[in-house]
DNA sequence: CGTGGGGTTGACTGAATTCAAGTAGTGTGG
DNA sequence: CCACACTACTTGAATTCAGTCAACCCCACG
């Protein structure tokens, strides 16, 4: 049965900002159901005008876009708590596709209700904007990575970033977290070839900085990795949840 | 003297969505003044928590961030109508710096009033989110460019994109628009070296696809350029103005 | 009239891509 | 039970696109 917002397991994690009772109720009214998709299933298509918006509850996925020449850019990895479909929600068209990498559970919201949602719940509207700003911030970082970091720094950056997010989501135990993506996904996220990504991962493994195999990422010393990645601030600020 | 929102020259351009009288009044109340800065002046600093937000009225500028190793990533070019400081407004910290490339005139808004602004003007709140979504869309495109396009395609993409924006802003006449940046700025935006950017510009010039010298960009056939850049849609959708 | 910023060009170097081959694990069907 | 196909990952060698180094030009400016 669909999870009630009041009982939402994500909401209580300290990474997410607390919500007032009114806000929880507003989310509950905005939520029209729950969707479970299998690994590999498409969720939103680039250029589409989806009638639905989502928040990831369980599982992981990918945002990506294809170019005319067949190359794929992975925009980012989707983890629980991520809001999906903002662009369709306000602009009416997605700039990228979204697909599930593992089996996923998603809260479903009705796109056509978003205007009333904004009107009736200014705190929640502010939270939507806040999430958009966080995404913008992240994309700026990603751009700087692909544009200015070399392969070793890039891979270190990406692994450190997911690991830090994983820590906030309580997915890390004994320096390990699940990371069910393929090397090709990471390569497409960083604008590197699969071969070079593989060799770079091997280098990080040899230097005992990060190990990623069989869908499990293991990082012994996150600060050392962050130093190589030129990440200045390893704290993850709290964020709103939709 | 400060421009009244009612007389805002940008508002009437067809690229910007129309605003109701109430919305114009709300903007006027939100606006605390106007700021004129000289070419080269910093407007916002990466990591800062600015008390002010801006909309560019005249002039052009740059968003950029520096990495620890001294490399600079230009995040995008700022043209009239662009909103500046969203991240500081909602998250309390800018992810990039902003500086004026030419002399600029900026509408100034009070960051601390943003919450009431959201509460009292849901249409305007929606517009802020819309702008954030547009920016997110753009950054996704930029990421795909730096990650997946080669140098020729990248430079073509960047020039075509500004040109299309320039057209919407009535800055183009006889296939020409002002583009007062340095080649280094473009290079830093695309993750290319200055030398290679220069040679790539020469290639586009030789092929009569785009000419950019003395701060003036000239494009004879935008569709041909867009084809090289793998830009699928050369229309620029209307957007809100703050 | 020197100085410095921006732009241009050629020669050399190198990081990352492409090509190629091979391993390991998994699932399928004869 | 084994041959086959398929996917993900791995590794070495050859190639190339883009970076670095180094000059040089032009021009605005003090």
UniProtKB/TrEMBL annotation, chains A, B:
HTH crp-type domain ranges (all copies): 149-223
Keywords attached to this entry: DNA-binding, Kinase, Transcription, Transcription regulation, Transferase
CDD domains, alphabetized: CAP_ED
Pfam families registered for this protein in UniProt: cNMP_binding, HTH_Crp_2
GO terms for MF: DNA binding; kinase activity
GO biological process, one term: regulation of DNA-templated transcription
InterPro entries to which the protein is assigned, alphabetical: cNMP-bd_dom (IPR000595), cNMP-bd_dom_sf (IPR018490), HTH_CRP (IPR012318), RmlC-like_jellyroll (IPR014710), WH-like_DNA-bd_sf (IPR036388), WH_DNA-bd_sf (IPR036390)
SUPFAM superfamilies, A to Z: cAMP-binding domain-like (SSF51206), Winged helix' DNA-binding domain (SSF46785)
Source species, domain of life: Bacteria
Protein name: cAMP-binding domain of CRP or a regulatory subunit of cAMP-dependent protein kinases
Naturally occurring in which organism (per UniProt): Yoonia rosea
């Amino acid at each position: 049965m669909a999870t009630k917002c009041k009982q939402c397991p994500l909401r209580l994690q300290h990474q997410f900002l607390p919500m007032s009772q009114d806000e929880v109720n507003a989310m509950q009214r905005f939520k029209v159901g729950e969707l479970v998709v299998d690994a590999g299933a498409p969720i939103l298509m680039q250029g589409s005008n989806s009638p639905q918006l989502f928040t990831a509850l369980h599982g992981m996925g990918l945002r990506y876009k294809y170019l005319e020449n067949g190359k794929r850019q992975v925009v980012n990895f989707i983890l629980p708590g991520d809001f999906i479909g903002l662009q369709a929600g306000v602009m009416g068209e997605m700039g990228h596709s979204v697909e599930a990498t593992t089996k996923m559970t998603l809260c479903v919201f009705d796109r056509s209700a978003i205007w009333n949602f904004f009107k009736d719940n200014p705190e929640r509207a502010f939270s939507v904007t806040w999430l958009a700003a966080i995404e913008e911030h992240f994309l700026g970082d990603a751009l700087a990575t692909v544009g200015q970091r070399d392969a070793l720094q890039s891979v270190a950056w990406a692994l450190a970033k997911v690991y830090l997010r994983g820590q906030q989501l309580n997915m890390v135990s004994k320096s390990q977290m699940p990371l069910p993506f393929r090397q090709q996904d990471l390569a497409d996220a960083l604008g590197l070839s699969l071969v070079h990504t593989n060799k770079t991962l091997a280098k990080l493994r040899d230097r005992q900085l990060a190990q990623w195999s069989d869908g499990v990422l293991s990082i012994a010393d996150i600060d050392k990795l962050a130093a190589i990645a030129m990440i200045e601030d390893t704290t993850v600020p709290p964020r709103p949840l939709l």
